[in-house]
Write a structure and sequence with these properties.
The chain is built from five helices and 41 strands. The strands form four sheets. The chain has a 29-stranded antiparallel sheet that branches. Strands 1-2-7-8-5-6 form a six-stranded mixed sheet, with no helix packed on it. Strands 24-25-29-28 form a four-stranded mixed sheet, with no helix packed on it.
């Protein structure tokens, strides 16, 4: 009873206390909506990373197209040939999941599976094989299954010009297999070159006389066919990545004919100063190639990467020139070439600590060209280029800093028949980057290297080009030294804006340039090469992109100014301004883009020529859904002529204006379609296999 009474009394007291207690001092308040925005782009001391959104991935048809959609500020993409370079013009190597990608692999990439895109300057990862500038696509990984992708690209208003490809990918557990087949066919009548040359020759009395030879092409017929087939197998695990690629390519131009008018002022012939000419340059090439990539993560924090390759090609090239001048012989240079090339690199990478790494790299290779000339000037030559090198490198990296330095000693031997010349030279790379946050980074790099002349520039053969010109090489050419310094600041304050500001200096010293000397008693000229020149290029510019309307509209621009200077045997200076711009708009499953780039104006160092092409503009509209991506592009719609570029050279004995005709800058329409379908379960996509390249040719053209 007492217990019950206590419980009742306690309950009553607690209730009374609860009724008299003061209210809680913390008031309830409705919270505002919290929106978390993913960071789609960032920069650091080691790389810059970009995550494409759904609109960009669905609108892009291939890897380069996705780079154009992203408008990455550190790179530029030429609208005419889709070449990817740094802002100052250096080559950018493209990788997919840390494996090198060919041009056909780039075309076959499935953009919907791209997780992120990385841009790296002088990366230390051994899988990048020492490439200085890299774009790496990181793809989504899958368990097993496969897919097939079809691509069709057709140009209109310029004659037959199409490309088509099909490839399939299949993966099971750690193995992936790629099979690629493509075709490229062209048939048009506007590809040709006109030459206006001024020759200083001697007349019959030995008096110097200037003769202007004008070779103006009126008609042309050019056919080109290419059929690559490639197979690749990849094994990919946590500690091993092994890839083997074999390929065959049939490359043929059965007809490359131009004909037109030929005139001399004053008349080079006693009977005629006006006539006609015909030139034909057909060729056929067959290439077989193999490329391997072997990457291992070893005990004790060692990494090993080995990249061997080998290829063989056979080329038949015919050059025929004839004019209607009286008693003028047909110039016929028929050549056959067998080319072998073997190359390889091995990089051993050691992680010393969380901040320090070192690597050792060995490289070597040999290219052998067996070239036989028949016809007007028969020759039989063997060319051999062999190189070997050793590199030691060091990397220091912490949160704000990344510093790389490597020094290499390179040996090269160039042999023509029984005559050979060899040389040792150093290669130095130093780069440093500072990034106080993921919105800012400052990068600088210095490169000291060399450039070795090719086999065709060193051939001792003398071949006739036309009635007044012969050409040969110079077996005594030496390598030229190269210096490159670049400074760049990257700024990414938010997802909607990014920019880069840069300055670059490139210098090449003791470079080889063409020279012209009297030949056949002064009645003709002989073109050869000497090492006498200094080439300098300084570039200043910026790049930015800005997204508006909830990422539906993207604007991008890249203005720059370039200062060219060539001294020595030649004296040339040019200061062109360049500007690229684009605007892209996304509307549900549709996308639209307008792009423009100013004419390219360059001084080509080893050619000692001033090169100028045309401006280029295009409008495109596309639709993408259900695995389809259909696009129509209109290019240079208001340009009716076929002139592509102009190139000029000026020397004491010879000056020339070369007018290059073609389809690139003429108005045209392009229809491109891609379709992808899956079978089985999704697999890792991207890194598709494509056409493999062969050894460089030594045939003098």
């Amino acid at each position: 009873m007492r217990i019950y009474s206590f419980i009742i009394m306690s309950t009553a007291a607690f209730a009374g206390l609860a009724q008299t207690a003061p209210p809680d001092s913390v008031k309830t308040q409705e919270l505002n909506e919290v929106v978390v925005v993913a960071q789609m782009q960032q920069t650091s001391a080691t790389s810059s990373t970009f995550i494409p959104n759904k609109k960009q991935k669905s609108s892009a048809q291939n890897a380069v197209d996705l780079l154009q959609q992203l408008a990455i500020p550190q790179i530029t993409i030429n609208l005419v040939d889709n070449a990817v370079t740094t802002l100052s013009g250096q080559n950018v190597s493209i990788y997919i999941n840390y494996l090198p990608a060919s041009s056909q692999e780039i075309e076959g990439l499935l953009t919907s599976d791209v997780r992120r895109v990385e841009y790296l300057d002088f990366p230390t990862d051994p899988r990048f094989n020492g490439n200085e500038h890299v774009v790496n696509f990181i793809m989504q990984r899958y368990e097993y299954g496969g897919y097939t992708k079809l691509t069709l690209n057709e140009n209109f208003l310029v004659g037959l010009s199409n490309r088509a490809s099909v490839y399939s990918k299949f993966a099971y557990k750690r193995m992936m297999y790629d099979l690629y087949a493509g075709t490229s066919n062209h048939d048009n009548k506007h590809v040709g070159t006109s030459y206006i040359g001024k020759y200083t020759l001697q007349d019959k009395e030995g008096v110097a006389q200037e003769i202007t030879r004008s070779e103006i092409f009126d008609n042309a017929h050019f056919k080109y066919n290419q059929y690559p087939v490639t197979f690749r197998a990849v094994y990919d695990s946590d500690k091993i990545q092994v890839s083997n690629t074999v390929g065959f390519t049939f490359d043929q131009s059965p007809l490359a004919e131009t004909n037109g008018s030929l005139s001399f002022s004053p008349g080079a012939s006693a009977n005629s100063s006006y006539t006609s000419y015909t030139r034909n340059e057909p060729y056929t090439t067959r290439r077989v190639s193999w490329q391997g990539s072997y990457y291992f993560i070893l005990p004790h924090k060692f990494h090993l990467n080995i990249n061997p390759s080998a290829n063989y090609s056979h080329t038949n090239y015919d050059y025929t020139y004839r004019s209607s001048l009286p008693d003028d012989d047909v110039i016929e240079n028929i050549s056959k070439e067998n080319a072998w090339q073997v190359r390889g690199t091995a990089t051993l990478y050691k992680i010393l600590s969380q901040k320090q790494k070192v690597f050792l790299k060995a490289s070597g290779g040999s290219t052998h060209n067996d070239v036989s000339y028949y016809g007007s000037t028969p020759y039989d030559n063997d060319f051999s280029d062999t190189y070997a090198g050793a590199t030691v490198g060091y990397n220091f990296s912490n949160r704000p800093w990344n510093v790389n330095a490597d020094v290499a000693l390179q040996w090269e031997r160039n042999q023509i028949n029984s005559t050979s010349v060899s040389e040792f030279y150093p290669v130095v790379n130093v780069s440093a980057a500072f990034s106080p946050s993921n919105r800012h980074s400052l990068r600088a790099f210095f490169h000291l290297g060399a450039n070795y002349p090719g086999a065709s520039e060193k051939t001792p053969n003398i071949l006739q080009v036309n009635e007044l010109m012969y050409q040969t090489g110079n077996p005594d050419l030496k390598l030229s030294r190269q210096v490159n310094f670049n400074l760049q600041y990257n700024w990414m304050p938010c997802n909607n804006f990014s920019a880069a500001f840069y300055a670059q200096y490139f210098g090449e010293y003791n470079l080889y340039v063409p020279v012209y000397s009297p030949y056949q008693g002064g009645h003709a000229l002989l073109k050869s090469f000497i090492s006498d020149g200094k080439y300098q290029r300084t570039t200043l510019g910026m790049s930015f992109n800005y997204k508006l309307l909830n990422n539906k509209l993207q604007l991008a621009a890249q203005p720059s100014i370039i200062l060219y200077r060539l001294t020595g045997y030649y004296d040339l200076s040019k200061y062109p301004f360049a500007f690229n711009a684009s605007a892209t708009y996304y509307l549900n499953n549709f996308y639209f883009q307008a792009s423009y780039q100013t004419p390219g104006r360059t001084i080509q160092g080893n050619h000692a020529a001033y090169y100028k092409d045309r401006d280029f503009y295009q409008l495109l509209a596309g639709w993408s859904k259900w695995g389809w991506n259909i696009r129509l592009t209109a290019m240079s719609l208001f340009r009716s002529d076929w002139l592509g570029a102009t190139q000029t050279i000026d020397t004491p004995l010879y000056s020339e204006t070369k007018l290059q005709g073609g389809n690139y800058y003429h108005r045209r329409l392009n229809m491109s379609v891609t379709y992808t379908f899956n079978y089985g379960k999704k697999v890792q996509r991207g890194n598709e296999v494509g056409e493999q390249s062969g050894a460089s040719s030594a045939i003098m053209k």
